[in-house]
Automatic annotation (TrEMBL):
<comment type="subunit">
    <text>Homodimer. Forms a membrane-associated complex with FtsX.</text>
</comment>
<keyword id="KW-0472">Membrane</keyword>
<dbReference type="InterPro" id="IPR005286">
    <property type="entry name" value="Cell_div_FtsE"/>
</dbReference>
<keyword id="KW-0067">ATP-binding</keyword>
<protein>
    <recommendedName>
        <fullName>Cell division ATP-binding protein FtsE</fullName>
    </recommendedName>
</protein>
<dbReference type="GO" id="GO:0016887">
    <property type="term" value="F:ATP hydrolysis activity"/>
</dbReference>
<comment type="similarity">
    <text>Belongs to the ABC transporter superfamily.</text>
</comment>
<dbReference type="InterPro" id="IPR027417">
    <property type="entry name" value="P-loop_NTPase"/>
</dbReference>
<keyword id="KW-0131">Cell cycle</keyword>
<keyword id="KW-1003">Cell membrane</keyword>
<dbReference type="GO" id="GO:0005524">
    <property type="term" value="F:ATP binding"/>
</dbReference>
<keyword id="KW-0132">Cell division</keyword>
<dbReference type="GO" id="GO:0022857">
    <property type="term" value="F:transmembrane transporter activity"/>
</dbReference>
<dbReference type="InterPro" id="IPR003593">
    <property type="entry name" value="AAA+_ATPase"/>
</dbReference>
<dbReference type="GO" id="GO:0051301">
    <property type="term" value="P:cell division"/>
</dbReference>
<dbReference type="GO" id="GO:0005886">
    <property type="term" value="C:plasma membrane"/>
</dbReference>
<dbReference type="InterPro" id="IPR015854">
    <property type="entry name" value="ABC_transpr_LolD-like"/>
</dbReference>
Amino acid sequence: MIRFEQVGKRYPNGHMGLDGVSFHIRRGEMVFITGHSGAGKSTLLKLIMCMERPSSGQVHIGGQDLRDLGSNDIPYLRRQIGVVFQNHQLLFDRTVFDNVALPLVINGTPTDEVGRRVRAALDKVGLLNKEKSYPIALSGGEQQRIGIARAVVHKPALLLADEPTGNLDPSLSAEIMALFEDFNRVGVTVMIASHDLPLIAQLDHRMLTLDQGQLVTDGEQA
Ligand SMILES: Nc1ncnc2c1ncn2[C@@H]1O[C@H](COP(=O)(O)OP(=O)(O)OP(=O)(O)O)[C@@H](O)[C@H]1O
């Protein structure tokens, strides 16, 4: 599903965000990416989303070489991907329903289907009763769940998360990870960048470790 071959990313200031990174993630896997601050975790996720382009090497997503994608093809790629951010990036002047509906509205999904899909996504994250609330009225953990509902509302094959538990306490963080495991169990490929090693150690998934832009370990946890 995701294949990196000797991928390098040199930023315009000359800094190597990634350097010679190769790995293969199969459809249906759940994988953590870890490493120190600045190790290249966000850069790796941005390359998958085509928010950045590699300076060297090749990135394949679903068998497609991203070098062959023109700017007109990028929205199609992104429709197959859901993204969860640390600060969830919710719109505070819109209701929970409208926040979750946003990707569908952008895609031009018919209105009756929007309602059905939004409620299904809210149900999966356990917040069906909050559709009329505004994000400000929700706890940090609930806001992150809304961010996850928005990421999965268009049923992506691939779910990416960049430090999704960064602002949450340990028990809420564990609940959020359990939610990602639920989506993985029904076939979604999940990739989570996180430096929360104690939490990752409690979960039994493959872990890629970056150090200064290089992939230093790739394996199942002991
Ligand atoms: N647009 C940019 N221009 C120049 N350098 C950048 C840019 N984006 C990232 N970098 C640098 O590339 C390196 C990798 O950054 P990246 O954001 O991928 O790390 P990270 O592992 O996600 O870190 P963090 O956990 O702090 O978010 C860092 O040294 C960063 O300063």
